Amino acid sequence: MKLDIRYFAWLRERVGTASEQIETEAATVADLIAELRARDEGYAYAFSDTGSIRAAIDQDLVEMDAPLDGAREVAFFPPMTGG
Amino acid sequence: MKLDIRYFAWLRERVGTASEQIETEAATVADLIAELRARDEGYAYAFSDTGSIRAAIDQDLVEMDAPLDGAREVAFFPPMTGG
Amino acid sequence: MSEPVRVQTAPFDMGAELNAFAASVTGAGAVVSFSGITRDIATGDLEVMEIEHFPGMTEKALAAIRAQAMERFNLADAMILHRYGPLKPADPIMMVATAARHRGDAFAGAEFLMDYLKSRAPFWKKEVTASGAAWVEARPEDEDALARWTRRG
Amino acid sequence: MSEPVRVQTAPFDMGAELNAFAASVTGAGAVVSFSGITRDIATGDLEVMEIEHFPGMTEKALAAIRAQAMERFNLADAMILHRYGPLKPADPIMMVATAARHRGDAFAGAEFLMDYLKSRAPFWKKEVTASGAAWVEARPEDEDALARWTRRG
């Protein structure tokens, strides 16, 4: 399936791009992270501490075991620091 | 001893005056209330529900058993409703 | 900076007060304000809300409550403004504002100020309608609200 | 009335916002506001605070948080305003305001908005000094602050 991936804050800086489109068969967010981490050293570094990574599917915050079924966009970012 | 007595809100309205000077030998605020209550029907009515009366000695909130020793002014009023 | 404790008959502009308060504070990232506005009553015919107070004791009580809040919640600053005399429905009655490094302290400080002010500062409200006047009764919830601060002591 | 949820780069006047919010509310005697102000950092040389956000998701998250707070605390109204882009020290960053019949609800509603907004709305702060830039780390206390709302359920 085709997925738009977006990165924010230091995750964006470490990955080196704000967004990309990928082709994946990953079943869950965690599977997708494992796939991205395996790509190269930059991604491995960006996703090294999964405890510090939050994900949203189609703009809704989700847990790491959330299924990607039906998703169009997945966003990854560090814990939020608004307010 | 001479004491200035002040009344506020409905206590003032029921007693019929905002302040008066009295001569008393009452030892505590509660004693003073008993003395005032014995005066006439107006005072008896004003002080009928002691649970609804608060007192201040020289502008500091006090309990009913507070001694009047050294007091110059005693104020009586209903529970506060500021804010 | 304006006086941190004010008791006055004059109306006030809560927005202007908030701006003046925030501008006078340095190094505090969190500013909380509470404003109390004269509500109409259930019968919908409030003409005037009269607020009586005990001049002298009021200022003293508010200053003491403010000092307690400043110390207890590590506030960078705090202000209390309360009107007395006749107020109309929708008139601002009073306002408190707190500033602190962390938002939890600013919120707790403002709530503490309000809880103490409600039941420990000598103000009394009287509602005047076409059919007469009635003193506002103290709410037991306001005493309960106070109790939590001593419990946490 | 102005939009109850706004995400913008433009500065705002917290006093004017508070006044506009309070004026638009009827029948609520209690108005609480929280304003967040850019604090300088420990080293004292903050030049710019950059706030990044996730356009689209931010508005959606804030609207959802507001709706939750409105219902849970019986609010008459609530507003959230948050800036993004480059901010200078002492610039107001964001503001929430709540109105309710009782002060406890107005306070709780505003704290709830802040706690959710801090950790659940997609904003990220970066501090820029002469010596470089660093992303602000999330504070564990902010997650703890959230937990109390689920406990009270």
Task: Spell out the blueprint of helices and strands.
The complex is a heterotetramer, with two copies of chain A (83 residues) and two copies of chain C (153 residues).
Chain A: E1 2-7, H1 9-15, E2 19-23, H2 29-37, H3 41-46, E3 54-57, E4 60-62, E5 73-77
Chain C: E1 5-8, H1 14-24, E2 30-37, E3 46-53, H2 57-72, E4 77-83, E5 85-87, E6 92-100, H3 103-120, E7 123-129, E8 132-135, H4 140-152
Parallel strand pairs in C: 1-4
Antiparallel strand pairs in C: 2-6, 3-5, 3-7, 4-6, 7-8
Main features:
heterotetramer; A: 83 residues; alpha+beta; 5-stranded mixed sheet; 3 helices; globular; C: 153 residues; 4-stranded mixed sheet; 4-stranded antiparallel sheet; 4 helices; 38% helix
Describe the protein in words:
- The complex is a heterotetramer, with two copies of chain A (83 residues) and two copies of chain C (153 residues).
- A five-stranded mixed sheet of chain A has the order 2-1-5-3-4.
- The model of chain A has no long low-confidence stretch (mean pLDDT 96).
- With 83 residues, chain A is an alpha+beta fold.
- Chain A has helices at residues 9-15, 29-37, 41-46, and strands spanning 2-7, 19-23, 54-57, 60-62, 73-77.
- Chain A has three helices and five strands.
- The termini of chain A are far apart.
- With 153 residues, chain C is an alpha+beta fold.
- Helix content of chain C is 38%, strand content 33%.
- Chain C contains four helices and eight strands, in the order E-H-E-E-H-E-E-E-H-E-E-H.
- Chain C has a four-stranded mixed sheet, with helices on both faces. In chain C, strands 5-3-7-8 form a four-stranded antiparallel sheet, with no helix packed on it.
- The longest helix of chain C has 18 residues, at 103-120.
- Chains in contact: A-D, B-C, C-D.
- Chain C binds chain D through residues 13-19, 22, 26-40, 90, 92, 101-104, 106-107, 110-111, 114, 141, 145, and chain D through 13-19, 22, 26-40, 90, 92, 101-104, 106-107, 110-111, 114, 141, 145.
- Strand 2 (30-37) of chain C pairs antiparallel with strand 2 of chain D, so a sheet runs across the interface.
